[in-house]
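$ run holo --ligand "adenosine-5'-triphosphate" --emit C-alpha cells
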Amino acid sequence: MQLKKKQAIALSSLIAEEAEAPRIISGIAEFDRVCGGGLVPGSALLVGGDPGIGKSTLLLQATAALARCGVRAIYISGEESAAQVKLRAKRLGLADTPVELGIETRLGNILATVEKPAERPPGILVIDSIQTVMADAIDAAPGTVSQLRGTTQELVRFAKRSGWTVILVGHVTKEGQIAGPRVIEHMVDTVLYFEGDRGHRFRILRGVKNRFGPTDEIGVFDMTGNGLEEVANPSALFLSGRRDNSSGSVVFAGMEGSRPVLVEIQALVAQTSLGTPRRTVVGWDSGRLAMVLAVLDTRCNLSLGSCDVYLNIAGGLRIYEPAADLAVAAALISSYCNVPARFDSAIFGEISLSGEVRTVAQSDKRLKEAAKLGLTHAIVPAGTTTAQPEISLQPIEMLSDLTDSFLAQADGVAMQPRDQDRPHENDNR
Ligand SMILES: Nc1ncnc2c1ncn2[C@@H]1O[C@H](COP(=O)(O)OP(=O)(O)OP(=O)(O)O)[C@@H](O)[C@H]1O
Ligand SMILES: [Mg+2]
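-- output --
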C-alpha cells in the first residue's frame, strides 16, 4: 500500500474577510433570544426534549413564523404522516403559511430535495427527528449511535457548505445517554433543550451550548390548545398561586441567563417515621440540598437528621444557580420552625461550607425584578447594595443569622412541625 504524500495547508490570519451574515429572526422573541439573538445562517442546531413535550409544535411554529417572514422553510418529518403534520398546522392556525413539508427518512433523498437548484436563497431545514433519519452508507438501524453520528455529521457538513440552517430534533431516550441527543451535542453549533413538567402547562426552552451567543438563556412558553404561547413575564407566572402565611415558602430572586426570574421555592420538613429519612427534590440538585442540610446542622445547630425533607421549585422550573442556596435554607428553616417568611420578601445568596453567606452576581437586576413584582423587602448577602429605593434590605453575613431570626419569631410557637404537615408515607413524587 502506498502512503499518501503529506501536504502543508495554507494558514491565514484571524482578520475576518467576510462580513458576518445577518441573523435570521423568527419574531418569536423567546425562541430568538435562546438562539443568541436569532439563527445563524449555515449553522446546525439540536433541539432535544422528552417525548411529547412539544418539540414538533415549537418547531412547526418557529418554521411557520420564519416562512411568513419570507425565509425558505422546509420541514421534514420522519415520524408523522403528512396528514398528521397538516392537522397540527391547522390546529395551530398555521395551515396557510408557506412552509414546505416533506415526509422522508433517507438522508440522501432529504439532501437531494433541499439541494435542488431553486431561485430562493438557502433557508431553514428542520429534521423531525434525527433518530428517524438513516444514511444508506451506514449499515445500522435508524436511531443507533452510528446512524445518529453519521447522519448528523453529514447534515452539519451540508449546513456549513450550503448556508442552510439545519435544526435537528432529538428525543431524550429513557437510557439518557445512549443514542440520545447527548451523542451528537458536540457536533452541532447550538444545543437547546425543551423542558417542562408534564403536570404543568409551562415549557422552558433552555440553551445549553451556543457557539454564537450566551448559554443559560431560557424562553418560557405556555402550552395551550392553540399551540405554544410566549410568556413575556415569567416571574408573575411562577409566583401566581402563592399563598400568604404559608410556612416553607419563599421567593427566590434568580437569574436565567441575562434575565431575572422570581420563583417560589417550597420546602416541607416533617418528623420521619422511617429509619432513613426521605429527601425528595423536584427542580433542584439533591447534592446541593444535602450540602445546605449539612451546613444547617454543623454551623447552625439545626439538625434535620430525623426529618423527612421535601423541596419543590414551583411551576416546573429547574434551578441550577448556587445563588438559590440561601432561599432553599430559608424555606427549610421556615418549614421547620413553622414560621412563614415575609410574603413581600425576595431572597438570594450562596452559602459556603463554613456557613458564610456569599454575595452573588447581578444582585441589582434581581432586586429590580423583585421591585417590579411589588416586593418591598429582600434577604441578601451582607455587602449587597441596591439602587431600588422601594426595597429594604436585610443583610445576612452568616447562615446562623437567618436561623436566629426565624427562631426568634418562632418564640412561643410550637417548634416541631405540625402533625398535619406530615406527608403521606408512600408519596413518591
Ligand atoms: N388538541 C390539543 N389540544 C391541546 N394540546 C394539545 C393538543 N394536541 C396536542 N397537544 C399538546 O401537544 C403535546 C405534543 O406536542 P408535540 O407533538 O409537539 O410533542 P413532541 O415533543 O414533538 O412529541 P413526540 O415526542 O411525540 O415527537 C401534547 O403533549 C399536548 O400537550
Ligand atoms: Mg414530535
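-- notes --
The first strand starts at residue 44 and ends at 49.
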